[in-house]
Amino acid sequence: MESLTTHERRTLIQRGTYGRYASSGHLVYAWEGSLLASAFDLGRMKVTGPEIPLLENLRSSADGSAQFALSGSGSLVYASGGPPPARTLIWVDRQGNARPLPAQARMYGQPRVSPDGRRLAVEIGDGAGSDIWTYDLARDVLARLTYDRKSEFPRWAPDGKHLVFSSAKSGVINLFFQAADGSGQAEQLFPSEVEQWVGSWSRDGRMLTFVQVSPTDSGDIWVLPLQGERKPQPFLRAPFTQYGALISPDGRWLAYLSDESGRFEVYVTSFPSGQGKWQISTEGGTQVIWAPTGRELFWRNGDKVMAAGVEANTTFAAAKPMLLFSAAYMRHWQGLPDWDITPDGQRFVMIKNSEAESPTQVNVVLNWFEELKKGSNAEQKR
User: Fold this and answer.
1) pLDDT above 90: residue 344
2) Residue 215 forms beta bridges with which residues?
3) What is the Cα–Cα distance from 204 to 226, expressed in whole angstroms?
4) How far apart are CA 2 and CA 29, in angstroms?
5) What is the mean pLDDT of residues 358-376?
């Protein structure tokens, strides 16, 4: 829960996604294919009752979204049956020409090209969670790296031998580090009681940026030194939301997103000093990535893929944004790119949602709030 006035955040339910408040006095939410509810005091903003199981076989996705809706009059509509639609990995050139990769359609997310261009790191979900996998492009082989259903957002280390990713395996989404060949155990970079989302590595491997979300910060950019004492330092804190935190290939600039104008736009500041600020996008921008040369920035604006050339010598300057192509590829997260670019800068790896099959069944329940109240009273009497 987040206050719209103070932006304070509070965790209400430890295991639950896609929460909705019902006027019957309940929080209704999804978890691993089930629909659940808990009594909720809206005045005190506090859960006041136990978890109540409502129904099974709810259609949901690995990102936590679920296919149900509540009406103000007390009706419930939900989709049931079958796994979520799969997705395809796609190569797309700078003109928008597309070619599917041979990898089997799965619930892909956050593809990342390795520094040598030979592998992808990608998250794959199953409707109940997600894990990190690697994909050998030449051999067409997928290999699983994590097995906890709580890991996502992989990022290659500059050496191409390790990955850092975000995972909730410790209870809260924190940063973890592991060898990309699957050897050894995942190492938590440092414990924290607030959420941490991976940003990027510096090319020399000495620093890692990440976005921290806390009860008082909706999204701030931090830097973690990876040599010596791993003591994170705030880099960009503001009363609005910042995402992205991508260090340029030469290590001198940082591209990020901010909603300070009322919508997300792409900005650049110097790194690691944080001096100066240049707005790159002009009509909205999300999911920013650097060209491997550091001479271009790319971002998404709806279905549009935009680009701007940059000059970054003693100071920074950006050219007018231009449209590369427009196509309906997946763009789930605002700040964490659902795409990447090859080391030669000529192709993007993107994700295409498959033609979504119709749900096995769409169900409508009238006067559902009354049944919810009865279930809540019965649970409290136990």
Assistant:
1) yes
2) none
3) 10
4) 16
5) 76
- Is the pLDDT at 378 greater than 60, yes or no? no
Q: What share of the chain is helix, strand, coil (3-state, %, to 5)?
A: 5, 50, 50
CB count in 10 Å sphere of residue 164: 25
Angstrom distance (rounded) from CA 342 to CA 115: 8
The CA distance from 74 to 108, in Å, is: 35
Angstrom CA distances, 101 to 111, 278, 325, 333, stand at 12, 36, 20, 22
Q: 3-class secondary structure for 287-302?
A: EEEECCCCCEEEEEEC
Mean pLDDT of the 344-365 span: 82
As a whole number of angstroms, the distance between CA 320 and CA 101 comes to 32
Residue 197 banded pLDDT, cuts 50, 70, 90: very high
User: Position 311: which residue type?
Assistant: E
Report whether pLDDT(359) > 60.
Answer: no
Round to whole Å and give the CA distance between 262 and 259. 5
Distance CA 92, CA 74 (A): 46
Calculate mean pLDDT across residues 163-192: 93
- 13 DSSP 8-state letter: -
Distance between CA atoms of residues 60 and 78, nearest Å:
10
Closest C-alpha to 349, from 2, 6, 114, 54:
114
Cα 268 to Cα 244: distance, rounded to the nearest angstrom: 11
13 vs 39: CA distance, rounded Å: 11
Mention every residue, 6+ apart, whose C-beta is less than 8 A from residue 269: 236, 253, 254, 256, 275, 276, 277, 278
Residue given tokens 């935190």 in the structure block: 245
The answer to whether 35 and 28 have CB atoms below 8 angstroms apart is yes
How far apart are the C-alpha atoms of 215 and 37, rounded to whole Å?
A: 23
Peptide bond into 115 cis (omega under 30): no
Helices (H) and strands (E) in the chain — how many of each?
A: 1, 33
Query: Using one digit for the tens of pLDDT, what is the confidence trace for 91-104?
Result: 999 999 999 999 99
The DSSP call for residue 371 is H
In this predicted structure, the answer to whether residue 356 has a pLDDT above a threshold of 60 is no
Q: Which of 151, 149, 114, 115 minimizes the C-alpha distance to 134? A: 114
The mean pLDDT value of the chain amounts to 89
Q: Cβ(369)–Cβ(375) under 8 Å?
A: no
For residues 117-144, average pLDDT = 92
pLDDT reading at 217 higher than 90: no
